[in-house]
């Protein structure tokens, strides 16, 4: 009898302890929710409530996005470097026309190595003014700027930067067009003529495409490359829309959508981690250009030139080594990171921001996945250029070092993982 009473007492104590732990966690959650609510109130963060659409334009855009005929040698499509599952190609520096395979299994073969990472497509087309890492395409208040001047018959169809962006990989000899002498498109000197020849001889010569264009753009008698770009851009906007993430659910009032660790990570994001300085708004990006001290890696043969980022477009010395802030939506799916894919994991990114000085001056190529390349990938270890890369960082806290603890870094990573759908 005494034994039974002792067991009952122990069970009651255990239940009491369990209930007490639950009450304590609930108290901590309520406390941190109140703190986060106050912090968010001072920002422009908001949930993504855009509902993607599917219509004749997106159907046409997907067909074009997946079609190798858009490339000069008909060996590469948009989806080669922008997977439908991750929106990128999962390797540091992209491999263009002449390469073989997909994702981490892609190999260089006769291709050139592109000097930058294939930018993720998540959340593009949703109000951004600039496209590409250096912003060489912009669409601001209806005014379009592009590397090559295009006629109004093309540009009048665009309603967002991504519409124009979709056409320029097609025009790049290294990305999709191929080298002179390899195919008819590569032999044409005028960029607009390339687009119109592609459209007339490869796309609209296919009756299924003619029907798809007519369905997407009823009442239009003459189709231009602008319709092609708009269709691809609209497909990208809707296919790679990211919503209903745990973070979105939390912002929309579901306080249980984030774990306690993710909430602590959100506090780091909003405060000590400085992330909110650039990753703000509904798309978690400020549509601006920043230098964050990223090491410069480059292919030995394909591109020896220093990558000076936005400065190459603007000519403004204040833009040296600055690159466009990427969206953090689905960031856990878009490794490797930064404009050149030099940081392999989210841990690497967080560690870099935690001590940029150490990360930049002690970067090692041993951490870089280079199996895809037949040419050597090199690191710019020039102390003068690296000092410039570091000194032009415009965030004082980032230059001094964030000094995040191991727990804060783990919580921040946990929060970043909550940005995936």
Automatic annotation (TrEMBL):
<keyword id="KW-0408">Iron</keyword>
<dbReference type="InterPro" id="IPR036909">
    <property type="entry name" value="Cyt_c-like_dom_sf"/>
</dbReference>
<dbReference type="InterPro" id="IPR004852">
    <property type="entry name" value="Di-haem_cyt_c_peroxidsae"/>
</dbReference>
<keyword id="KW-0349">Heme</keyword>
<feature type="binding site" description="covalent">
    <location>
        <position position="81"/>
    </location>
    <ligand>
        <name>heme c 1</name>
    </ligand>
</feature>
<feature type="domain" description="Cytochrome c">
    <location>
        <begin position="260"/>
        <end position="420"/>
    </location>
</feature>
<dbReference type="InterPro" id="IPR026259">
    <property type="entry name" value="MauG/Cytc_peroxidase"/>
</dbReference>
<keyword id="KW-0479">Metal-binding</keyword>
<feature type="binding site" description="covalent">
    <location>
        <position position="278"/>
    </location>
    <ligand>
        <name>heme c 2</name>
    </ligand>
</feature>
<dbReference type="GO" id="GO:0046872">
    <property type="term" value="F:metal ion binding"/>
</dbReference>
<dbReference type="InterPro" id="IPR009056">
    <property type="entry name" value="Cyt_c-like_dom"/>
</dbReference>
<dbReference type="GO" id="GO:0009055">
    <property type="term" value="F:electron transfer activity"/>
</dbReference>
<dbReference type="InterPro" id="IPR051395">
    <property type="entry name" value="Cytochrome_c_Peroxidase/MauG"/>
</dbReference>
<feature type="binding site" description="axial binding residue">
    <location>
        <position position="82"/>
    </location>
    <ligand>
        <name>heme c 1</name>
    </ligand>
</feature>
<dbReference type="GO" id="GO:0004130">
    <property type="term" value="F:cytochrome-c peroxidase activity"/>
</dbReference>
<protein>
    <recommendedName>
        <fullName>Cytochrome c domain-containing protein</fullName>
    </recommendedName>
</protein>
<feature type="binding site" description="axial binding residue">
    <location>
        <position position="279"/>
    </location>
    <ligand>
        <name>heme c 2</name>
    </ligand>
</feature>
<dbReference type="GO" id="GO:0020037">
    <property type="term" value="F:heme binding"/>
</dbReference>
<keyword id="KW-0560">Oxidoreductase</keyword>
<dbReference type="Pfam" id="PF03150">
    <property type="entry name" value="CCP_MauG"/>
</dbReference>
<dbReference type="GO" id="GO:0042597">
    <property type="term" value="C:periplasmic space"/>
</dbReference>
<keyword id="KW-0732">Signal</keyword>
<keyword id="KW-0574">Periplasm</keyword>
<feature type="binding site" description="covalent">
    <location>
        <position position="275"/>
    </location>
    <ligand>
        <name>heme c 2</name>
    </ligand>
</feature>
<feature type="binding site" description="covalent">
    <location>
        <position position="78"/>
    </location>
    <ligand>
        <name>heme c 1</name>
    </ligand>
</feature>
